[in-house]
Amino acid sequence: MKRTVQLLVLTTSLFAFTPRVDASCYLDCMERSGCFSGGMTTTPQLCGINNSHAMEMCNIQCRGQVDPSSFGAIAYSRSDKLWGFTYGQPDQATAEKLAVQYCVKQGGAKCLVAASFHDTCGAIAADGNVVAWGTDRTKYYAEQRAVAECTRIGGKACEAQASICSLPR
Prior knowledge:
Layout: H1 2-16, H2 23-33, H3 44-47, H4 52-62, E1 71-77, E2 82-89, H5 92-105, E3 112-118, E4 121-127, E5 130-136, H6 139-152, E6 159-165
Antiparallel strand pairs: 1-2, 1-3, 4-5, 4-6
């Protein structure tokens, strides 16, 4: 029992002191990789499931480069069910503008900002024309809040569509 507690404290300490990643370096790296999309990737061998390989590579490449920017946003096209997102931006207006641009780049015809957030995680959930957002400390809980809000406002089969944290976590 004592050994388990020590291991837990050691593991927690390691995560607490992990250097933050510069968001602009990270965004540039993901864009260069071709994996930063908010949609399905065409290069799963490079990007991995949910872009996990590219994200890990960019986290390593940008480790130790601190950027205090922490605004994020998600734009969504209801008719096309496509989204774009951004994070690590210097202000809310820039985050929202880039999220809409990424949504349009994915093929969204009528992309609108569905959520914007600062120094936290955000998510959107949708069921047809019912779209809702949620925020929390983790993507998982932000998604749960978005689905709950979507259901609360009338969605019958709400599903999380996109989630991102304002800085890579």
